[in-house]
Amino acid sequence: MQTLRASKCGLSTAQLPASILDVIDALTKAGYEAYIVGGGVRDLMLGLNPKDYDAVTNATPSQIKEVFGRRCRIIGRRFELAHVYSGRELIEVATFRAPPKKAVTSAAGMILRDNNWGSIEQDFSRRDFSINALYYQPRKDVVLDFCHAVEDIQSRTLRLLGDPQLRFEEDPVRMLRALRFSAKLKFSIDPKILEIFTPERTQLLRDVSPHRLYDESQKLFTMGHLYQVLPMLIDFGIWRQLFAEIRPEITPFIERAAKNTDQRIQIGKTINPAFFYAVLLWKPFLERCDFYLQKGVVPTEARAQAGLDVLKRQATRTVIPRFAETFIREVWEMQTRLLNPKPQQIEALSNHARFRAGFDFLLLREKSGDNTTQSMGSWWDAYQLMSSDEKERAIGQYNRQRAKTRRKAAQEEPAETKVAIEIEPLVQEQEPRSRRSRKAKTTETTSRTSTQDTSELSHDHPILKRKRVKRDLSQVVFGPTQ
Ligand code: ATP
Ligand code: MG
């Protein structure tokens, strides 16, 4: 172990937010050891702005709770941690951990419980990469380096501690972390990792909970280097594990959306992580819509059911939370609305809660060469910048054009295939997941017409029985959907 002078490693307390210093000071004052560890130290050494700071101590979670009282909450089961609030910041405080005992690993070697407290040396050896295993005590101006991590930072190498195969088996999520750090930090991956990082080995991810994989996918989407990591996900076989139903190819739309996401993060704009899921799943969604349309399902129902199907299948890999699922389906539904809006609803539509996301999505489609948007992305783009007089004129012009197109279409198509525009809600809220799965179980046992069946829709499928209700549209107010 090397004890290095922190100031010589480019670290100083002046760079640190008051919140992390407050946590380190309170633990030290109570007689415990306390360090900053992980991404905070690594990023500061690289001259980057850390996303957050993690602290580690020899105090157990209940002792940490004693120190911070109501500012502290203990979370996690598999991996017990203290969340300490300092001002408006939240700092994760972990206790030094010893290697897990055999009894708490799965048959495949995956760690199921990891709450075995230990010494700092033991804690170091169970961290993932060397560059994430530096311990910084800011008040003493020291950095503890157990594994020549500083050299790895200087040579920009991502090296796993211990035997790579064993470390991936213990926690397959480390495979995702390897690609994330390599893309984010522009580090090369140690050949010892590359040797064993095969597409077959990514199958270990099948044992990781789809909830945890969703969280990890979000980290990949929001780290600011999504464009760099996407081809890596394909090359290493991770894509197939995370997005089984999505063809492993980076379409112009996906590429543009990824670059756009990274740019937004770079300039400090907010992003909704579910947006990129809406992008990834757009093609499977359209294909599923076609499937229902060909079976004679009315377009509104086809879209609703296709949305549910596609999200249900994705949930076998990454469980997208309910609110995010609703967001995704609303963005998709907005595509229909924005493509063919009723003239009298245009202004209301531009003020709709989902307008921004729906419009961004439409414009990304258009700019990546999707001409099915019929230039409506640019139309809405221009519309938003207009004065009220200009808007009125633009709507008038749009109305005339629309009437012309409809007349033409009416001459060409038989009347019954015409599609009416349905008005709100954008998305019918689903029943809670628990009830859905219970229902699904009973229907699965009684009939085999589940949505998984891609080949056939039986003639008595409920979706074919639904009738379109004729509504008095003049009475409908276009409003928020949630
Ligand atoms: P960032 O926060 O920038 O994404 P980080 O390295 O801080 O990166 P965290 O997920 O915040 O990542 O974890 C903090 C530290 O905990 C890591 O630096 C690493 O030392 C340890 N750690 C996290 N996840 C694992 C894991 N799956 N296996 C081993 N150690 C881990
Ligand atoms: Mg961190």
UniProtKB/TrEMBL annotation:
Residues 187-246 form the tRNA nucleotidyltransferase/poly(A) polymerase RNA and SrmB- binding domain. Pfam families: PolyA_pol (PF01743), PolyA_pol_arg_C (PF12626), PolyA_pol_RNAbd (PF12627). Residues 409-421 have a biased composition (Basic and acidic residues). GO terms for biological process: mRNA processing; polyadenylation-dependent RNA catabolic process. Transmembrane segments: none annotated. Keywords: ATP-binding, mRNA processing, Nucleotide-binding, RNA-binding, Transcription, Transferase. This is Poly(A) polymerase I. It comes from Acinetobacter tandoii DSM 14970 = CIP 107469. The gene is pcnB.
